[in-house]
Amino acid sequence: MGVPVHDNFRVEEATVPDLAEGQVLLENRVFAIDPAVRGMLDDVKSYLPAVPLGGLIPTMVLGRVVQSRNPAFREGDYGRAFIGWETHSVIAPGAVGFENVNVASDLPLTAYMGACGWSGITAYVGLKRYGEIRSGDEVLMSAAAGAVGSVGGQIARLSGCRVVGTVSSEEKARIVTDVLGFDAAINYRDCDSLDSEIERHFPDGIDLYFDNVGGATLDAVLPRMKAFGRIPVCGMVANYNNQSNPYPLRNIWQVLVNRITMRGFLAYEAVDMLHEAETALADWVRTGQLVATENVATGLDAAPDAFIRLMTGQTIGKTLVRLDDNVSTLADWTPVRNG
Question: Locate the Enoyl reductase (ER) domain: which residues (predicted)?
């Protein structure tokens, strides 16, 4: 329990095994560093198994196929899968999230692990399918400077909605409004009352709340939801460091009072929407309609510190680790602006 520290991690060396029939060997290029992994480091029930002591830290990886005994993957292809912090991965058929990635020459690899990858897909699917977003909605996006929230707020803006984001610092508030185009931001660490701030920004109520955090923010939002409002639940990061003693919700009865649809979701289960989401996100990033924010560390040894920064709220955008500095990032790239 508690915030992870560097001493919780160690690096081990192992020999890459020979491939069995159907397996693929990836040379990993980029790791996604995700807060949901924190929930797997405690022995509590989650949607993926808990990590045993001494186990590989799980994460989504993007790698280049260097050997294949699987006809669906050729050497030189790029593959994405939920594996772990390692330089090479042996992927078996049926591995979680294992898929070919069509890497375009006009986008950096890191984009496929952030705004054009599962963070962006999660925001897109969560809003479109589970949030049933409509033009004119009043939308509140929690963790608005984070990997999912920063993309989700922009998708809501592009969908014709008014969007307010919750953030944890004035720097993040500035980025969310001035760079990402949100209509307003609420710094929950620097306001007298979160309840009052939400009421001030939504005097007529909230149509759609995208929940990345749970905890006190969710509790403050519930009384401000409009009748038949929608809450897609993506994450509960407020409780991840303290899962044995989660925040006690006082206002959950508002789900009944306002007939709220509140639903947890996993984006990879919306298989029929994946191509639509990937295409839309890549097009928006290419044309500059969607600003992809990321913070990138370099080298396997950098992964623990990147994870700690993420879990202590120090990061903005998608937290990533590239295995070496030959991997291009969005900082090296310029979008094709409209007009």
Answer: 4-321
Q: Do 130 and 246 have their domain in common?
A: yes
- CA-CA distance, 80 to 118, in Å (whole number)? 10
Q: Are residues 176 and 188 in the same domain?
A: yes
The reply to whether 124 and 192 lie within a common domain is yes
Q: Domain check: are 131 and 250 in the same one?
A: yes
Give the whole-angstrom CA distance, residue 241 versus residue 220: 20
Three-state secondary-structure class, residue 200: helix
- The domain that holds 253 is classified in CATH as 3.40.50.720
Question: Is 337 a member of any domain?
Answer: no
Give per-residue pLDDT as tens, 180-216. Answer: 999 999 999 999 899 999 999 999 999 999 999 998 9
What pTM was estimated for this model as a whole?
0.87
CB count within 10 Å of CB 251 equals 16
Evaluate whether residue 283 is within a structural domain: no
Q: Which domain holds residue 163?
A: 118-268
Neighbours of 228 (CB within 10 A): 10
Do 96 and 226 fall within a single domain?
no
Residue 41 sits in a domain of what CATH number? Answer: 3.90.180.10
- Residues linked to residue 140 through DSSP beta bridges, in sequence order: 164, 209
Domain count, the chain: 2
- The answer to whether residues 162 and 144 belong to one domain is yes
Alpha-carbon torsion (86, 89, 94, 99), positive or negative: positive
Whether the Cβ atoms of residue 19 and residue 90 lie closer than 8 Å to each other: yes
Paired tokens of 119: 């963070």
pLDDT digits (tens, 9 = 90+) for 257-316: 999 999 999 988 898 999 999 999 999 999 999 999 998 999 999 988 888 888 887 778
Mean pLDDT of 114-118: 93
- Backbone dihedral angles phi then psi of residue 180, each to the nearest 5 degrees: -95, -15
- The Cα angle at residue 124 between residues 121 and 127, in degrees rounded to 5: 140
**Could you count the other beta carbons within 10 Å of the beta carbon of residue 87?**
15
- pLDDT at res. 35: 72
Q: What is the pLDDT of residues 213-243, one digit of tens each?
A: 998 999 999 999 999 999 999 987 654 545 5
